[in-house]
Each structure stands twice: as structure tokens, then as C-alpha cells.
Amino acid sequence: MNSNSNLACDTCPVRESAACASLNDEERIKLSKIGRHKILKKGETLTAAGDENTVCATLVSGALKITSNDRDGTERILSLVHPAGFVGELFSPAVHHDVVALTESKLCVFSRPQYEEIIEGHPALALALLRRSADDLFDARSMMDLAGKRSADARVAGLIQAFARAASHSPCHSADTFDLPLTRGEMAGMLGLTIETISRKLGLLESDGLIKRQGARGIRISDHARLAELSD
Amino acid sequence: MNSNSNLACDTCPVRESAACASLNDEERIKLSKIGRHKILKKGETLTAAGDENTVCATLVSGALKITSNDRDGTERILSLVHPAGFVGELFSPAVHHDVVALTESKLCVFSRPQYEEIIEGHPALALALLRRSADDLFDARSMMDLAGKRSADARVAGLIQAFARAASHSPCHSADTFDLPLTRGEMAGMLGLTIETISRKLGLLESDGLIKRQGARGIRISDHARLAELSD
DNA sequence: CGAAAGGTTGAGTTCCGTCAAGTGTGGTGG
DNA sequence: CCACCACACTTGACGGAACTCAACCTTTCG
Predict the structure, then answer these.
(1) Does the pTM exceed 0.70?
(2) How far is it, in rounded angstroms, from Cα A188 to Cα A161?
(3) Residue A139 is assigned to a structural domain of this protein
(4) CB A157 within 8 A of CB A205
(5) How far apart are CA A206 and CA A212, in angstroms?
(6) A141 inside domain
(7) I need a surface site. Which of A68, B146, B152, B199 has the fewest CB within 10 A?
(8) CA–C1' distance A75–D17 (Å)?
(9) Residue-level pLDDT, tens digit, chain B, 232 residues
(10) pLDDT value, residue B1
(11) Are the C-beta atoms of B43 and B87 separated by less than 8 Å?
């Protein structure tokens, strides 16, 4: 159990952008009373499918994946969670998906029933979560769109573009040099492909001059236009 | 323009289950002032990708699909909307997906900016939408899971089970005789497959004795267990 | 240094998409 | 009533894209 200390909202890096930013000081103090920090190391899980649904959380730093697993053990990534993101299935008695840390991550964890009570008493929080939820829904649909592309080329190209957009912090622009945040296996899990196919397609993208690789993870996009065309 | 009359909430079939059910009479009357009914015939669109985002709506009867289109014209179905469901991308300036009627549908349409104002002033509505949004997100992830299965067999089997669950009105149980609500093309669009593959897989499921078909749309599930195993 | 995990590459095979032809079926109009 | 058409669906043959299996390379970490 690696939880600890009271919450230090004052120094929280996501205090302006997370759902709790909608609360005033008094309300936030109240919320902080029922929350606690938790550190997940890379690969550790917050909740697993089948668990009783007791917690929800705001991600403070790091990154999480939300996944489900086929019987044969293949992991399917349903969503990535970035700092200020909210995780947890509100209003549901059971947990349906695994939530696992991609990198060492810091969370603000709450009891789900208590959090729901607070939501009901605090309209601003409900509204903030509604906005976040609308974004999550849009992201999920974007991912469905990506994973549903016919060819593996289009999916890989689209994923690279998505990472490039996420890597640049300005929302409309996209970085042209960045590191892939996932292993080949995780990318495969997002796109419904295999590790080998990801590896081969990245090789092809490079030999076609659309990207340049530096080591296993480093990517430089050389031809945004052709990449966009491929991914359409 | 097939809009009309004031809203008749009193006789609305989804008045107990839609988001607006959370409002008291006075509030609902206020909401009904800014809404109007609209009938969409099969195939007609409510909003198209690229439009300015001006409307949102509650589905009263019928069924909708939320789709995106590849450049080559392939339609990808991102979500199905059932009565009492809410459609519209709140808090977003532009529309990203098409919303099209699968069958003749009756909607309660609102101006999105006005609706957002009302949400901000009515916590119960925000909370109701948050619950609905959480459900939508779960559905979206379930569909990602389904469409991400390795084999076409698993996807088709899973889709049939999903329809069987939707056809029985009790949420935990699943019907064993029902009609497919979609054309082969639409099923293909949901699963990222082709019409021909859907057709063939249905044929195989029948010849393997898992289902029995009556005409193009009628399905009877003969072997729930093997179907579930296939779809896992 | 050795082991483990992540990544690449190759050869063979299978599954699904493509193209094409053919079978209902419901609706419209002569 | 039948002829015709549009649309949804089925079926077959074929080729190619992605999966599987397997070997090997690279980096990291104990």
C-alpha cells in the first residue's frame, strides 16, 4: 500500500486543469479530506476487471492505460489517460476494465461512493466531469475510427500523427520530433495489430521517407502531408 | 423543415428515462420552450461532420447512428443511439461526426448553446447527462473491444450477442429470437469488415448450428454457450 | 556478465478483401 | 396482374495483406 499524506492541492501540477479545479477552496479542502495520493510504478494496476468498483481517481502525473484482455491473453488498449484525466467508472457497481500505469504515475484516489456524493452536492464538479467525459467520449470515438481503418498502414500512420499531436502541447499544432510513448506491443494493442506488423510498418514508413527513427522510440516526421494522406 | 409544435412532455415515451426526467415540472417547461420536435426519415441526417455545432437532441423514438467516413467513402459506425439517448457534442464548436437516422426517428432538438446554459443552471440535468455520458463511454469502449477482436468470427458472434442483449428489454438477460436491426453494410461498418464477410460468417454460424436464420434479418440463437465462446 | 525484455527480420500460411455474378424481395407503374 | 427496377443479400474464385512461428539483435538492469 503506497499511499500517504494529505493532499497538497496547493502544489498540485494539475490543479488548474483537473476536474477539481472547478471547486472553491473550501470545497477542495473537503474533497482533499476523502482523497489520498497513491504512486503506481510502471506496470502496476489501480483496478482490475471484475473488482468491486470502489475507487476513482485523478491522474496527477505519469500515464495510464485502460485495457481489456481476450481469453488468449491479448491485451486491447481502450484508452490512454494523461495528467488531469479522470479514471473510474462512476455509477457502476463493478469494474469492467483494467487500469494500469504505463510509467510511474501519481494519482489522487477517492472512494467512488464518497466521490459520487460530493458530485451530487457540487454542481460545478458535475459540470467539470461532464466536460471531461464529453472529451473522453470524443477521444474514444477518434480511437475507434483509427483502429477501424482498413489497412495497417493507415492505422500506424494515424497513430503516429496522434502521438505527434499529443507531444506538442499546443492543441492545434503537432510536434515533428518526439518519442513514442508506448512499446510495440502496446501500439499493437491499440490498433488491433501484432507487434511484428507494427515493426514492419514503421520500417516501411522510414524507408519511404515519411519518418526518420532514432533508436526504438524516437520519431521525426519528415513528410507530414504524405503521412496525413496515408492515414486518411 | 419538418419541425413543429411545442413539446408535449406529458405524453413523451421517454419522459421517465431521458436526461430531462431529472427536471421538475417548472424546469421542464422552461426546457420545452427552447426545444422543438423533429422527425427524421430513414437515412436523413441531423448533423454532418464539418457543420457548425448548433444543435443537440434527445432521441424520443427510432434509432440513430453516429458515423465517420473515410475518404474512399467507407462508412464507419461509431455508435448507435436508442430512445432516451442524447446526441450532440457538447462544449465543442464544430461537429466531428455524422448523425443519421437508421429508421424514422423522432427527436427533441435544442440549440446547443442554449442547452449548455440550461445545464449550467440546473445541476440535476448536469448530473443526469453525466450518468448518460458515463454509459455512452462504457458503450463506446465495449464497441472498441468488439471491433478489435482478432477474427471476423469473434466480431460477428459478439455483435449478435450484443443485439440479443439489446433486444431483450431486461438488461441482464438476452433474447434468443430477434431481428437484426442493421443491414449487412451497417454491421460491416460497425465491425470494420466487409458486407461479404458478414454474410459469409452468418452463413457459417448457421451451418455450424449456433444460430438459425429466418429471412435476411431474423435470428434465433441455438447455442448461446458456443456463441459466447466464439466471441471471447 | 548473463538474463530478460523489447525490437527486428524472414518464411510460410491463413484469412479476409476484392471483383464479379447471381438470387431474392419490395415497390412502382404500365 | 405482371414487368421492371432498385436494393439488400449471397456465393464463388482469386490475390494480397497481416498473422504465426521462429530466429536473431539490442538495450537495460541486476
Answers:
(1) yes
(2) 15
(3) no
(4) yes
(5) 5
(6) no
(7) B199
(8) 22
(9) 444 445 678 899 999 999 999 999 999 998 999 999 999 999 999 999 999 999 999 999 999 999 999 888 899 999 999 999 999 999 999 999 999 999 999 999 999 999 999 999 999 999 999 999 999 999 999 999 999 999 999 999 999 999 999 998 887 899 999 999 999 999 999 999 999 999 999 999 999 999 999 999 999 999 999 999 999 8
(10) 43
(11) no
Q: Are residues A122 and A208 in the same domain?
A: no
Give Dmax (Cα) for chain B.
58
Interface test with A, best of B67, B86, B130 (most A CBs within 10 A): B130
Number of structural domains in chain A: 2
Q: Which of B146, B172, B187 delimits the end of a domain?
A: B146
- Is residue A67 located within the same domain as residue A173? no
3-class DSSP state for residue A97? Answer: coil
Please identify among residues 124-183 of chain B the ones whose CB lies closer than 8 Å to any CB of chain A: 126-127, 129-131, 133-134, 136-138, 140-141, 143-145, 147-150
Please give the nucleotide, over all strands, whose C1' is closest to the CA of residue B150: D19
Cβ of A74 under 8 Å from any chain B Cβ?
A: yes
Residues of A with Cβ-Cβ distance to B71 under 8 angstroms: 232
For B104, list phi and psi in degrees, rounded to 5: -55, 130
* Nearest chain B residue to A188, by CA: B148
Verify that B130 and B30 share a domain, yes or no: yes
Q: What is the pLDDT of residues A82-111, one digit of tens each?
A: 999 999 999 999 999 999 999 999 999 999
> A189 and A121 in one domain?
no
Is residue A64 within 8 A of residue A105, CB to CB? The reply is: yes
Tell me, yes or no, whether B123 and B200 share the same domain. Answer: no
Question: Using CB atoms, which residue from A76, A130, A141 is nearest to B133?
Answer: A130
Measure A156 CA to D23 C1' (Å). Answer: 25
pLDDT, residue B3, reads: 44
For residue A137, which residues of chain B lie inside 8 Å, CB to CB?
Answer: 133, 136-137, 140
**Which range marks the domain in which residue B54 is found?**
3-146
Return the closest-CA partner of residue A130 out of B46, B62, B131.
Answer: B131
Which is nearest to B106 in space by CA: B8, B29, B196?
A: B8
Same domain, B214 and B134: no
Boundary-marking domain end, from A126, A159, A184? A126
Has residue A181 been placed in a domain?
Answer: yes
Whether residue A9 lies inside any domain: the answer is: yes
